């Protein structure tokens, strides 16, 4: 069943925070996202240039238009701008009664105020009592309580104070601004404290974290999750959104809420692509058998380079592709992390040319190189005997050196084949490179035909 979550928040023209972050989060969490826009900001990753708020009546009208049509399963507030808007939102939410998550946004990361000074008191006295959850960070919790927060213990005291003083059922004091290797969020709920923690990320992509986190809790509540379950999931969600942030802008980069669904989708796509390419090898098994070297072959494919971190993001064949009685055979179905050599080569390639996402090693022969030349393939020839000792000593250094050498011969973009002439104890090989495993298999087929 479709659930509806509404964001009552401002617009960030840079798309990193505000309603953009919220709607991306709702979509990633599988709920239908609706909006009641409060203010428009001319903003980017490093400053807020201008801001203008709508009338409280128009904010109410947006909420009512959604309510009268689809109903609202949960909501969240972000930038509310003025005391009049806060009063109107408190009044309408109080009447409709849907669970509301309040992100008590006061100041943008860039330092600009997002709420007028006289509105903070209205937020405390009018909005917090009708909210189910409030999600202050350290400076916001200090402003709401007048306390100094320097530890998890202080955060607990602040959370309990906010609940007792303003009546919000659940208080989440976020640990992002506290010190320590773990980012610990403290939750006060029904007289008990709960802690949710993730490793602290040293990331530049933090613009919109508060927005996406509160939206993720609202999405969980809209889906009917237990509040603690909704908060725990939101914590994992925001960890992923920060880790795979949008590397764009001169200031704090935007968080990436869609990483939550894009990464699993990418892994599935890569797996399916590889499976199809292995099918093509099976169909031409006798031909491919001629190209299997002593060390055997592997065919790998890395997920979208924006999301690739290590060999576990490269799908390949466990046990490699072998020559079994004159037929090329993948030893088993593809798996992530199944390759070491090919995976490291692909990671080195994609680090220099984002299109070079797939590769397969085949047997070296001068005839195959000649054939590649006749086909007009872009060829790089690497002599491993010239590899400096330092490169050999570094983990993954050899692959980087081979790839660097190869791409220096082809103007920075990947060649169709890298001819590795081998070294003592290292069999010469040809690595066929392409955008997809299907393209690689087609290139090998043309070479062998
Ligand atoms: C329109 C708008 N709404 C909210 C914010 C706050 O975002 P940010 O500065 O990234 O702070 P957190 O949401 O991460 O706490 C904004 N800048 N603009
Ligand atoms: C190219 C190469 N070099 C040594 S083994 C091998 C074949 C593929 O290895 P992996 O299965 O680790 O990708």
TrEMBL record:
Residues 273-445 form the Thiamine-phosphate synthase ThiN domain. Gene3D superfamilies: 3.40.1190.20, Class II aldolase/adducin N-terminal domain. CDD domains: HMPP_kinase. InterPro entries: Aldolase_II/adducin_N_sf, HMP/HMP-P_kinase_dom, PM/HMP-P_kinase-1, Ribokinase-like, ThiN. It catalyses: 2-[(2R,5Z)-2-carboxy-4-methylthiazol-5(2H)-ylidene]ethyl phosphate + 4-amino-2-methyl-5-(diphosphooxymethyl)pyrimidine + 2 H(+) = thiamine phosphate + CO2 + diphosphate; 4-amino-2-methyl-5-(phosphooxymethyl)pyrimidine + ATP = 4-amino-2-methyl-5-(diphosphooxymethyl)pyrimidine + ADP; 4-amino-5-hydroxymethyl-2-methylpyrimidine + ATP = 4-amino-2-methyl-5-(phosphooxymethyl)pyrimidine + ADP + H(+); 2-(2-carboxy-4-methylthiazol-5-yl)ethyl phosphate + 4-amino-2-methyl-5-(diphosphooxymethyl)pyrimidine + 2 H(+) = thiamine phosphate + CO2 + diphosphate. It comes from the Archaea. It is an enzyme of class 2 (transferase). GO terms for biological process: thiamine biosynthetic process. The keyword Cytoplasm does not apply. GO terms for molecular function: ATP binding; hydroxymethylpyrimidine kinase activity; phosphomethylpyrimidine kinase activity; thiamine-phosphate diphosphorylase activity. One of its GO terms (cellular component) is cytosol. Signal peptide: none annotated. Residues 12-256 form the Pyridoxamine kinase/Phosphomethylpyrimidine kinase domain. PANTHER family: HYDROXYMETHYLPYRIMIDINE_PHOSPHOMETHYLPYRIMIDINE KINASE THI20-RELATED (PTHR20858:SF17), PHOSPHOMETHYLPYRIMIDINE KINASE (PTHR20858). In the N-terminal section; belongs to the ThiD family. Catalyzes the phosphorylation of hydroxymethylpyrimidine phosphate (HMP-P) to HMP-PP, and of HMP to HMP-P. This is Bifunctional thiamine biosynthesis protein ThiDN.
